[in-house]
Amino acid sequence: MRLIVEILLMGLAVFLGAKLVPGVSVDGYGTAIIAAILIALANATIGFILRVLTFPVNFLTLGLVSFIISVLMILLVDNLMAGFSTTGFWAAAILAIVVAIIKAIFGAIAGSDKD
To answer: Is 63 helix (H, G, I), strand (E, B) or coil?
Structure first.
């Protein structure tokens, strides 16, 4: 159940991020959920491999490379989907920041149910 809620919240974060960031568009909430799932899958597979390969550089740049990899995964999903689009790297970078902030706010409101 928690996974479904996380997916819906990530979709809402992508949908709100697309409304807030100029240069990012999404056709609707359903498309935002699909984009969120694809971004999560890209980060979990390709992003993980890239993070492992770039660990020394990521360590030296204090995590900046991980952020760039996340932006690249957003651009990858942009190329894969028809209803989700960004105008370029900077729009995707701002979207990544906005989505991270929205997810942090959702996490603070929801709290954790770990006992």
So the answer is: coil
* Closest C-alpha among 10, 37, 38, 27 to residue 99: 10
* pLDDT at 64 exceeding the cut of 70: yes
Cα–Cα distance measured from residue 99 to residue 63, given in angstroms and rounded to the nearest whole number:
17
Tokens, residue 113:
């149910």
| Beta-ladder partners of 86 | 24
Q: Which of 78-93 are b and which e, b meaning 16 or more Cβ less than 10 Å from the residue's Cβ?
A: beebeebbbeeeebbb
The three-point CA angle 70-71-74 to 5° equals 90
The pTM of this model reads: 0.88
Of the candidates 9, 4, 2, 5, the residue with the CA atom closest to the CA atom of residue 100 = 9
> Distance (Å, rounded) from C-alpha 20 to C-alpha 114?
32
SS3 content of the chain, % helix, strand, coil (to 5): 75, 5, 15
User: Which helix (DSSP H) or strand (DSSP E) does residue 26 occupy?
Assistant: strand 24-26
